[in-house]
Amino acid sequence: MPERILFLTGRLAEPQLRRVLAELGEAGFAWEVQVLGVQVAALMTADMIRRRLTDTRGADRILVPGRCRGDLAALSAHFGIPVERGPDELMDLPEFFGRKRRAPDLSRHDVSVFAELVEAPRMSVEAILAQAADYAADGADVIDIGGLPQTPFPHLEEAVQALKGAGYKVSVDSMDPDELLRGGRAGADYLLSLTSQTLHLLDQVAATPILIPARHGDLDDLVAAMERLEAQGRAYLADPILDPLPFGFAASLARYHELRRRMPQAEMLMGCGNVSELTDADTPGIHALLLGVMAELGIRALLTTQVSPHCRSAVREIDMARRIMFAAMESRSLPRDWSDALLGLRHRKPFPYGQDEIASMAEAVKDPSFRVQVSRSGVHVFNRDGLHTATDPFALWPHLKLEQDGGHAFYLGVELARAQIAWQLGKRYNQDEELAWGCMVRRPDAGTNPACGPVSSHSSPNSEPPP
């Protein structure tokens, strides 16, 4: 008879755990899954298991989540069968049982990215096309041509037609009704933004409008405009407007939530620039949070800008965030361990070796070539002549004795600088490899998306912009 294993988990992870176990196929054991009344599996404790698990269902072994706290030996004695911790991450379960881990599927998403050219009136058509190509390579689905207040835009029609001729979806973004009308007549797919007071423009163009309240925060006005277009059978996207931190952000999130409650089937758009551009914080985390909110509320379009220098990789970050959140929602698992693309400054497991393990490696080295490793203790450099550890590379220099070897000194200088940065930030360091910065730095060898790996931003039927 095969071994019977009882897997304990939380409500969120249950569907994904069952899917992973089913995909293991003939794994050499029979299994059952039991949810112990907690939402997140990592919150499970040994005391909780003892109280809540009243039937081990004939299991020969119990496997609990890797982050489960408490004395498992005492649990084993209590139940009379081994109680063991599994891997920290559910997706590592195949490896735990000696199988090759299945690669995460990040090929799909259901959010369309509108990438805005905020200086379009001051750009030539050639420059607009070049920037559009960069945006599309990073994952943009719609090129948004932004108008500027009191700034002439004589080549608006030419820009729209050039982008359409190059195969792009195009939106025109302006506060000037005349520019919106010109853009729509030139063939723009979307117009940003219309209100209840400018809906008459739609009588003259076929473009899909993005609706905003005529008065800031007025959901009743926005809903009235939405209902008016629905009565006409006209497609739209609705945007209650996201406000900046800390001046109305929470209230604006509540408006998105309320609009979804009142109009459960409506297509919606969220503009993230008021938060990402106006907050001096690294943007991958901001985008992950906003895309998670969008996933919860079923918002399938996002408008972004890349104006501030710290936002220069916004489209790449959003592209990966939408994929991670889609995968997490579909598998009903947390957005963890899908990709390191949004972990530009940190690594979840930065130091694979401890100081003692590195010392053992150093003892085995019998040649003069220097090896460099990083642990929690600092930067380690060693060869046959010894092991030296410091947190400042300058403290290591006297031990290297490379005054007469400029080439080797330069090489080690580069490696030790990388190693120090990795130690300071908590990043993974591998000798002779550049540090990985996720989506924040382009990777020219990564395939269709140069930042986040060989995935296509148009590889799924879910990726088309909302109608």
Structural account:
Helix 2 (46-52) packs parallel to helix 3 (72-79), helix 5 (125-138) packs across helix 6 and helix 11 (283-297) packs across helix 12 (314-331). The protein folds into three domains: 3-96, Rossmann fold (3-Layer(aba) Sandwich); 112-338 and 457-463, Dihydropteroate synthase-like (TIM Barrel), CATH 3.20.20; 355-425, no CATH class. Helix 3 links the parallel strand 3 and strand 4. It has helices spanning 14-24, 46-52, 72-79, 93-96, 125-138, 156-165, 177-186, 219-231, 249-262, 273-276, 283-297, 314-331, 355-364, 393-400, 406-425, and strands spanning 3-9, 29-35, 61-64, 83-85, 112-117, 142-146, 169-173, 190-194, 208-211, 237-238, 269-271, 301-304, 371-375, 378-383, 386-390. The model is unreliable at 447-463 (pLDDT under 50). An eight-stranded parallel sheet has the order 10-9-8-7-6-5-12-11. Helices cover 36% and strands 15% of the residues. The N and C termini lie far apart (56 Å).
Low-confidence stretches: 447-463
Shape: flat
Mean pLDDT: 91
* CATH class descriptor of the largest domain: Alpha Beta
- For the biggest β-sheet, the strand order reads 10-9-8-7-6-5-12-11
For the record, give the distance between the C-alpha atoms at the N and C termini, rounded to a whole number: 56 Å
Radius of gyration: 27 Å
Could you tell me the CATH topology label of the largest domain: TIM Barrel
- Helix/strand structural class: alpha/beta
Order of helices and strands: EHEHEHEHEHEHEHEEHEHEHHEHHEEEHH
CATH superfamily caption of the largest domain: Dihydropteroate synthase-like
Question: Which CATH architecture of the largest domain would you pick?
Answer: Alpha-Beta Barrel
Number of helices: 15
Largest sheet: number of strands, sense, barrel closure? 8 strands, parallel
Number of strands: 15
Strand proportion: 15-25%
* Helix fraction by DSSP (H/I, runs of at least 4): 25-40%
Number of domains: 3
